[in-house]
Design brief:
6 copies of one chain form a homohexamer. Chain A has 299 residues and is an alpha/beta fold. Helices cover 31% and strands 15% of the residues of chain A. Chain A has 8 helices and 9 strands. Chain A is globular. Chains in contact: A-B, A-D, A-E, A-F, B-C, B-D, B-E, C-D, C-E, C-F, D-F, E-F. At the A-E interface, loops of A face loops of E. Chains A, B, C, D, E, F: It holds the Pfam family Arginase.
Chain lengths: 299, 299, 299, 299, 299, 299
C-alpha cells in the first residue's frame, strides 16, 4: 500500500474560496477549517465532495454575528487552510491522507474543524485525534447508526464509520444522538449498550446534558452527519431520512456543548448539488459558524 | 364504451424496477404492490404518473427495518407485481382497467397496496374492494376535501374522488383527516355530516383513535393523498397546500391503525419530477414500507 | 357524449400573459394567437400544457423586429385571445372544444395561430379549417410520423395525429418534412406514398420548394411539432429525438413558405418545464414571431 | 436626477397574468394588487423580480375560499392592476416610480397590496402612504433587521429598508417580529429600543396582540419579507435564514391583525426561480389571499 | 486483496428496469446488456453510476425500429441481465468483479454490451475479452485521450483507461477517434504513433473506413465514452468538452462498423442527473439501440 | 455623485477560487484575470454576477493544454487577482469602480482579461483602456447590436454598451461580428456604416481576417458577449438568441486574432445558474483559456 506523504501545510490545495471571515494564513489562529472533498464509498447518491466549496461560497449569505452566542466571527482568529485532494478510488489511502492532514493541524496548534465529504472521513480524523487526546469522548449527531461491520465487502464504507471509531477509541464513549435508521441489530446494539443515549424525540438536548454531566472538562469531539436534520431543512444530503430535527434542536445542543470542552469537530454529508435552492448549504454554513465559536471558546 | 380486458397477472407490465425487498413472483405473498402511472385528469401540475417508478427506485435509500414497528421487510413475503399501462386520454376506460386489476389481486388473495398516479384511481379500486368487503370503512389522509361533484364538466376528475367513493360505499363511513383546502360548500358538508372527523391541528391521531373505537375488526381501507404532508417535506406533489403535517403525525396515525384491520391502501399524488432533491419520493417509500407491514400484520 | 358549448370570444380564458406586441382585443386584427394547454394523451413526458404561458412570457426576451423578413411585430395588428380551458381526461370532448374555438376565430376573420399543448389538438383544428378551405394542403414539421392508427386502444392519441388528419383532409396532400422516427410500417407508408416528401438531410427546404411549385395560391396549413428541431436546441419537448434540425433549417423553410398562401398554423409539443434554461421557449417564441409575420403577409 | 412621470393607471404594464379571482379593471374595487419586479440592490441571490408573475400564475393552485377566515375571494371586489416597469440600475429613480404608483392607487381609493420585488421597495411605498396616514404604525415580518445605514456605500439597499422607513415614519412605531439575523449593533438597537417587540420563539402572535392593544383603530401597514418563514417552507428567497416560522405562526398573526385596521401591505423577496418545486410561490399566494381578505374587511 | 466471487448469472442484481424490447432471461439471446453502476475514480463530477438505470428508463421514449439500419429490436433476441453491484471505494476489486462478469457473459455465448458507469470499467472488460479474442482491435470514441499513466497516484483512474488497455492488448491496435482534449504528451503520443487515427474534423468516419480496410473480419471492440459528442447534445456527462460531434457523425461511424465484425462494446460516462432535460439519456439509449443491432448482425 | 476610491491591488476581494493554473500574486505576470460580478441593469434574466466564480470553479474540468494553439497554461505566468465588489443599485458608480480597477491593472503592466458580469461593464473598462491605447480597435462578438441610446431611461443599460463605447472610442473602429438581433434602426446603422462587418453565416472568421488586414499591429480589444454562441452550447446566458455559433466558429476567430495585437479582452453575460448542466461555464472557461494564451503571446 502506498503511503500518503503530506508533510506540511503547503501541501493543501488553496485554489478555492474561503469561509466568511477566515484568513488564508494561520497566524495565531486557534481553529482551522479544512475541506475533505471525498465521497468515494457513498453507495446511494454521491456529491458530498462538493460540500466544502458550497459551504464556503454560501457562508457569505449569513451574518458573521450569532445572536444566540452573542459572538462575532470578526472577533475570532481562525483560518481556512483549504482542501485536501484525495485519491478517490482508494479508500484506505484516502484515510491515510486524512490522518496525516489532521496531524499537521494538531502540530500547528489548530483545533480541527473538518468539512466533508462523506462520513467515513471521521475514521481517519479520529485516528490522529486520539493520539493527542487519549481520553476523548465522541458525540454523534446522525440519522443513521453507522455501526455496520462492512458494506459490500468494504470495511471503510461510510455505513461503518462509528463501528471503526468504536474499535479505536480508547474510552469507548460515544453518544449517538437522534439515530432513526439502521438494521435491527444496530438498534439492538444501541439499546443494549450503556454507551449510547437513546433517541427520545424532542428530548435530545436534555438527555445529552444529563449524559455529559460526569464528563466536565473531558475532551469532546463532535461528528455531525447533516442528515440528522429533517429532510425538509437539509434536502441536500445523500441519504435523507424522514422524521429528523430542526434548527431549534441544534440550538439546544449548542447550549449544552458550550459548557464543555470541544476540541474538534467534523460536519459531513452535505451534497449540495442535490438541493438547488441552496438552503442546505446555508444551514451547514450556519452550523459551521456556531462550531467555530464553540471551538474558539473552549480551553 | 370499450371495456378493459385484463384477465390475469401476466397482463401487468413488469419491465420496471421493484420495491426494496419485494419479489417479482407472487408465491405465498399476502400483500402486493401495484403501480398505476395515471395522471390524466390532473388540472394543475401533471407528473403523478412517475410516482411508481420513483418510489421503487428511491426505496433503496432507506432500510428494510422499521424501528417504530420493530419489523423488517425481509421477514415479510410481499410481491411487487409491476405497473398497469392505462389509456391516458380516457378516464372512464382507465378506471375500468383499475377495477379489473384490483379484482385480479383480490382473487389471488393479495391485499392491494396501490401506488398512484393521481387520486382519481381510488374510485376504480374501491369499486372492486367493496364487492369483497361490503362493510368497508375508508380513511382519507388528504389536504383537499375532493368532494366536488364535477370539474370542468368531468365527473371523474381527481377533485371528485371522495364524492364518487361516497356514492358507491355502502357504509358511507369515510373519515377525512387533515383536510385544509376546499370550497365553502365542501367544508360545510364536512362540518355538518357526522361522517367526518374535523380537522383539529395536532390532534388528528387522537381523534382518529376515538372515531375508530366502535369499529374494531371492521375492514378498513386507507387512501393517502400525499399532499396531506406539509409542502416542506413533500414538495413533489401536484397541488401542495401550506400548513400540512410531518412524519411524526403519520407515525401517530400508524400507531392507531395497527390495532385495526387494514385490508388495502393506496398512496397517491407523488409527482417526483417536481422535487429534484428526492426527499418526496423517499418519504413516500417510507410510508409504503409502513403500510406493507401494517397490511401483512392485519388479519 | 357531452358537446362543447363555446359560442363566442368571451368564453376564452384571458387571465394569463399575452405575446409580445399583441393586443388583448381583436379590432381589425387579421391574425390571432390562441393557447390550448392540453396534454391529456401524451404517453411519455407530460407538460405541453405549460407551452402557451411559457411562450408568452419568454417572448419578451426577443426583439419585435425580424432581420430575415425585415418586418416588425409593432407594425402588425394581431391579437392574443388567451387560452382555452379543456377537460383533460376526455380527449373526444377536448377536440370538440378545439374545433369550436377554431370556428369562432375563422368567423371573426382571424387567421388561427394555435399554440399547443400536444400534437393531437391539430385534429380538432383541421376539422374546422377544411370547412373554410376544402382544398387545403398541410405541411408537417415533425420528428415522428404520427401515422399510427391507435395507441393503447385510443384513436385520439398524439401518435395518431396525421393518420386522423389524412382521413378527413379532402386533398389528401400532406408534406411530411424531417420525420426521423416511427415504426417500420409508418416509414413504408411514407416512402411508398406519393403524398410525402422523403426526409433528405439538409435538403428539406429545397425539396419543399420543389414540392410546392405546383400549388401556388393553394391554402396551406402548417402543423409544427417542435421536436422536429434537434434536442440540443429544443430539449423542452416530450419525446426528443436525436438527429434533428437547427434554426438555419427553419429559416430556409420560412423562405419557401413566404411566397405561398399560409392560412393557419399550429406550434405544438413545447414542454417548457423540462428545460429550465428556457432556450426551448425562446426558440418557440421566435418561431411564433416568424409565423405571425407570414400569416399577416399572406392573402 | 430624472423624475418618474407616472400619472395615471394606464401607465401600468398589464401584459402579464392576473391573480386568481381578480379583475383587470378597477370598478368599485377597494383593494388593488400591484407588482414591482425590482431586485436591483439585492447583494446575494437576485431573482425577486420574478415574484409578481410567479405568485399570479401559482395562485391558480389554491382555492378562492379560506377556511380560517371563512371568506371567499369570489365575494370580494379587488383588482390586479398589473406591474410597474422600473429602471433596474437606478435605485433612486426606481423608488420615485414606486412612490408615484402608490399615490395613484391611493388617489383611486384602492388599498395597496404590493408584490415585490426586493424589500427596498417598501421605502418608496411608505413615503406615499404616510402622506395619507400620518399616524401610521408599521409591522415588519422578517428574518433580518434591515437596520443598516448603508451597504457598500448605498443607502437604498434592501439591507437598509427599515432604517430608511424609521427616518420618515412620523410615529416611529415599527414592530419587528421574528428577526433572527443581523449585526451586533442591529440587535442592540432592537433590544434597547422600546419600539421593537423582541423575538420570542413561538410567542410572536401573543406578543403582537399585547403590543397592538393600545393602538386599536390606528392605521397599520404590514411589510412582509417572506424570509421570515423557515427556509424549508420558503426556500425561494434570496437570503434564507435557518430557524424560521411556519404557516401556523402566520395564521396566528392573521388572527391578531384581523381586529385591527390594516390599510396596506407589501409581500417581498420571493425569488421563485430558486425553488423549482413551486412551494414558495404557492405559500406566497396563500399569504396574498389572506391579506386581500384582511384589507377588504378593514375600514 | 479480496477476490470477486461472481460465479453465475444469478449473481446479477435484477431489481431494476430493463431496456426496451429486452427479455429478462437469456434463452437463445446472442447479445446481453449489463449495467455497471460504478463511478468510484471520477475526479470532477460523479454520477455515472446512474447511467444504466436512466438509459433503461428513457429507452421507452424512442421506437424499437431504426430507419437507418432498417432493423427492429422486436426481431432481435437480446437479454438485459441487470446490473453488477460493485464495492465503490475499491477500484481494484471492482475491476475484478467486472472481469468476472464479462467472463460469465462470454461463457454463456452472449456478446457483451456494457453500460457504464465511468470509463475505467473498460479495463476490466478488456481483460476478459482478450482471452477469447487475442487478435482484438479496439475503437475508442472519446473526447479525451485517457492515456495518463496515473492520476493522483492511482493507476486505475478513468483518465488512465486507454493506457491500461494498451498495456494488455496483444495487437496494440487502438483507433482513437475524435480526441480533442489531453496533455501535451498525450497528443504527442497520439500523433507520433502509427496506432492512432488523427482527429480530423468531419472526416472521422472516412478515416476510420480507410483505417479498418485491412482488418476485415478481425474482432472489433468499441469503447464509447459519450463525451465524444458535443456538450450541446450530451450535457449529461462528467467532463463535457466543447467542440464535439453530433448524431450524424455517429450515424456515419455506424455505417463503417456495420461491415466489420463487432464482438462487444461499452457505452460509458453518461451522468444523467446532470441533465434534467433527459436528452442525454435518450441519445445514449439510441446509441445502445444501434449497437444491439450491430452486435446481433455481426458473426 | 460618490466617487470610487480604489487605489491599489489590495482592494480586490480575493476570498474566492482562482482560475486553473493562475497565481494569487502578480509577480512577473503579464496577464491578469479580474472578475466583475455585476448584473445591475440586466432587464430579462439576472445572474451574470455568478459568472466569475462559476468560470473559475469549472475551469478545473478542462486541461491546461490547448491542442489548437499548442500552448500550456502551466508555461504562462498569469495572475487571477480576484473580484471587484460593486454597488449593485448604482450603475454610474459601478462603472467608475470598473474604470479604476482597469487602471490599476494597466499601471501594474497587467493586460486585463475581465470576466463579467453583464455587458455594460465594457463601458467602464474601455474608458481606461483608451487612455493607454488611443488608437484602439474593438472587436465585438455578440448576438445583439447593443446600439440603443437608452433603455427605460437609462443610458448605462447593457443594451447600450456599444453605443457608449462608440461615443468614447477615438478610432470609431468597432467590428461587430455575428449580430443577429436588434431593432430595425440598429440593423440599419450596422448595414449603412462602413465601421461594421456584416453578419454572413459561416464566413465570420474570413471576413474578420479581411477586415483586420490593414490594421496589423494596432492594439485590439475583444469584447465577447457569450450569447454570440448558439443557445444549445451556451444556454446559461440572460438573453439567448436562436441561430448562433459553435466552438468551431470561435476556433476560426482565434486563428485570425493570433496574428494580431490583442491587448485586452472581456468575456461577459455568462449566467451560470440558468444552466445546471454546467456546459456553459465550461465553454466560457475554454474561451478564457484561449484568451489568456493570445494575450500572453501578443506584444
Amino acid at each position: 500500500m502506498t503511503k500518503s506523504n503530506l508533510r506540511d501545510l503547503s501541501l493543501f490545495n488553496n485554489d478555492g474560496a474561503i469561509f466568511m471571515g477566515a484568513q488564508r494564513d494561520i497566524d495565531q489562529s486557534r481553529v482551522s477549517l479544512l475541506g475533505v472533498p471525498y465521497d468515494g464509498t457513498c453507495c446511494f447518491r454521491p456529491g458530498a465532495r462538493f460540500g466544502p466549496s458550497a459551504i464556503r461560497e454560501d457562508s457569505y449569505g449569513i451574518e458573521t454575528y450569532c445572536p444566540q452566542l452573542d459572538l462575532d466571527l470578526e472577533d475570532i482568529n481562525f483560518t481556512d487552510i483549504g482542501s485536501l485532494d484525495v485519491p478517490l478510488g482508494d479508500a484506505e489511502l484516502t484515510l491515510d491522507y486524512i490522518s496525516d492532514a489532521t496531524n499537521i493541524l494538531l502540530k500547528n496548534n489548530l483545533k480541527p474543524l473538518i468539512i466533508g465529504g462523506e462520513h467515513s472521513i471521521t475514521i481517519g480524523i479520529i485516528k490522529s485525534i486520539i493520539t493527542n487526546y487519549p481520553d476523548l469522548i465522541m458525540l454523534q449527531l446522525d440519522a443513521h447508526a453507522d455501526l455496520r461491520d462492512e458494506w459490500l465487502g468494504s470495511k471503510l464504507s461510510h455505513a461503518c464509520t462509528m463501528k471503526r471509531c468504536l474499535e479505536i477509541l480508547p474510552s469507548k464513549k460515544i453518544f449517538q444522538i437522534g439515530i432513526r435508521s439502521g438494521t435491527k441489530s444496530e438498534f439492538l446494539e444501541m439499546n443494549n449498550s450503556k454507551r449510547f443515549i437513546q433517541h427520545t424525540l424532542g428530548e435530545n438536548a436534555k438527555s445529552l446534558e444529563e449524559a455529559l454531566k460526569s464528563f466536565k472538562g473531558r475532551p469532546i469531539y463532535l461528528t455531525f452527519d447533516l442528515d440528522w436534520f429533517d429532510p425538509s431543512v437539509m434536502p441536500g444530503t445523500g441519504t435523507p431520512e424522514p422524521g429528523g430535527y430542526f434548527w431549534g434542536d441544534f440550538a439546544a445542543i449548542i447550549n449544552v456543548i458550550k459548557s464543555h470542552n470541544l476540541i474538534g469537530a467534523d460536519v459531513v454529508e452535505l451534497s449540495p448539488k442535490l438541493d438547488t435552492t441552496g438552503i442546505s448549504s446555508i444551514l451547514a454554513a450556519k452550523v459551521i459558524r456556531s462550531l467555530i465559536m464553540l471551538l474558539d471558546k473552549s480551553s
